[in-house]
Specification:
Bound molecules: glycyl-adenosine-5'-phosphate
Radius of gyration: 27 Å
Mean pLDDT: 95
Helix content: 25-40%
Number of strands: 24
Distance between the termini: 34 Å
Largest sheet: 7 strands, mixed
């Protein structure tokens, strides 16, 4: 029977905590709403997701320029873009229980879940304000950036002056963003501190459609590369009324989360809005000179914007699997090997037999040199180790047993072997099937898998 979606999310959150993927932020102090901490395995998963993005959209191309801009920026940046005045969501407060909600997410905009009457919605600005320097006055105001995008737009001129790229070219950045969300919810889905992977791809005004289509395909490809199921990813064309005012076209990529279909990524045609605003507000000419035609103009921008934490959450939700193996119920994370935080685990059959441990350590070291994310595990019996590795989504386990290193103990073995067979058992996470593979062939074997 299909699990209730609420129960499935509870199970996923519980596994994330139990196995050290994601913890509540500031947990020992009762938490801080909308903040999450990643543990060793969650961080490994997140890094794999970010590295795949960087490789696909930056390293493998020759038209991208990486940027790592400061989170704190001159407040004039956010005035120019309209964020200080207009980056807000509608907030409604219940007159009875005083709880605050995002008005556009209420099932009944007039009535609270407590039965009380809801007040009139007002606009709530989501910028997280702070002060820079020793004096707290209006001149020292800064904001924790609500998107990484502007860190790139303000560096447009630096990139032109340093690298002299020709259009079309892109600026790419991975980094933190902050929004004082009215109602953080659904685990990490809507957080107050999160990470984005964004590109500002600059084109000649007439060439935006082609670039838009290219990124549309590339973004869809990326969802496959990180292991999302194609049937869970949808494209949603945003209507004229719902689009941000600066965008002439937006597609949201939505994902079927257990709590419902919701935005995963956005792809927007931002026209020349941002560069124009910064050019006007700063007084610095941000136009581009086309050397062939001698034409001067502000480039137009296509922006693929991807949330890192939402990618991690979608990957976790799609990977979470319950089945039965050998007559026993089990939970496992069916991560695509490309994002799995641990690729291979190596076990000695028994932890108190030095010959087994020594051989397993030797194999572990060799595999680790090649694949990095390899784990040595000798805790508990083999069944427990398999369960643990299944829950963290390790695609393969390698076991060194007596047959590997010694003459077979079975009295009916007449093979005449004096040493072991120098083979190990390789167990597949998804099927539970096991095969014997020669130690000398292991590297070759796993190179075909990752
Ligand atoms: N620069 C464009 C921009 O920031 P956005 O649609 O507001 O556009 C882009 O955000 C992506 O950032 C979203 O598709 C989502 O993946 C992620 N994101 C936005 N708000 C978030 C939040 N509160 N928590 C987690 N991720 C968020």
């Amino acid at each position: 029977m299909k699990k209730e979606s609420g129960q499935k999310m509870e199970d996923i959150i519980s596994l994330c905590k139990r196995r050290g993927f994601i913890f509540q932020g500031s947990e020992i102090y009762g938490g801080l709403a909308g903040t999450w901490d990643y543990g060793h395995l969650g961080l490994a998963l997140k890094n794999n997701i970010k590295n795949l993005w960087w490789k696909k959209f930056v390293t493998d191309r020759d038209d991208m320029y990486g940027v790592d801009a400061a989170i704190l920026m001159n407040q004039k940046v956010w005035k120019a873009t309209g964020h200080v005045d207009g980056f807000s969501d509608p907030l409604s407060e219940c007159k009875k229980c005083k709880k605050r909600f995002r008005a556009d997410q209420l099932a009944d905009p007039k009535k609270c879940e407590c039965g009380g009457e809801m007040g009139e919605p007002r606009q709530f600005n989501m910028m997280l304000k702070t002060h820079v320097g020793a004096i707290e006055d209006d001149t020292s105001i800064s904001y924790l950036r609500p998107e990484t995008a502007q860190g790139m737009f303000v560096n447009y001129k630096n990139i032109i002056d340093s690298y002299h790229p020709k259009l079309p070219f892109g600026m790419a950045q991975i980094g933190k963003a902050f929004r004082n969300e009215i109602a953080p919810r659904d685990f990490t889905f809507r957080s107050r501190e999160f990470e984005q992977m964004e590109i500002e791809y600059l084109v000649k005004p007439k060439e935006w459609k082609e670039a838009f289509e290219d990124f549309r395909k590339e973004m869809l490809d990326y969802t496959k590369e990180i292991g999302l199921k194609a049937e869970h990813v949808y494209e949603h064309e945003i209507s004229d009324e719902d689009r941000a005012f600066y965008s002439k076209r937006t597609i949201d990529f939505e994902f079927e989360f257990p709590f419902g279909r919701n935005e995963l990524y956005g792809l927007a045609y931002r026209t020349d809005y941002d560069l124009k605003r910064h050019s006007d507000a700063s007084g610095v000419d941000l136009s581009y000179l086309d050397e062939e035609t001698k034409e001067k103009f502000i480039p137009h921008c296509i922006e693929p914007s991807l949330g890192v934490d939402r990618s991690v959450l979608a990957v976790i939700c799609d990977a979470y699997t319950e089945d039965e193996l050998g007559g026993e119920k089990r939970i496992y994370m069916k991560f695509n090997p490309s994002v799995a935080p641990v690729k291979i685990a190596v076990f000695p059959l028994l932890k108190n037999k030095p010959v087994l441990v020594e051989k397993a350590r030797e194999i572990y070291k060799n595999l680790k040199k090649e694949f990095g994310a390899v784990m040595f595990d000798d805790n508990g019996n083999i069944g427990k180790r398999y369960r643990r590795q299944d829950e963290i989504g390790t695609p393969y386990c390698v076991t060194v047993d007596f047959e590997t290193i010694e003459k077979p103990a079975r009295p009916d073995d007449n093979s005449g072997r004096s040493g072991g067979d120098n083979m190990v058992t390789v167990r597949d996470r998804d099927t539970g099937t096991q095969e014997r593979i020669k130690i000398e062939d292991l590297l070759k074997h796993f190179k075909t898998k990752f």
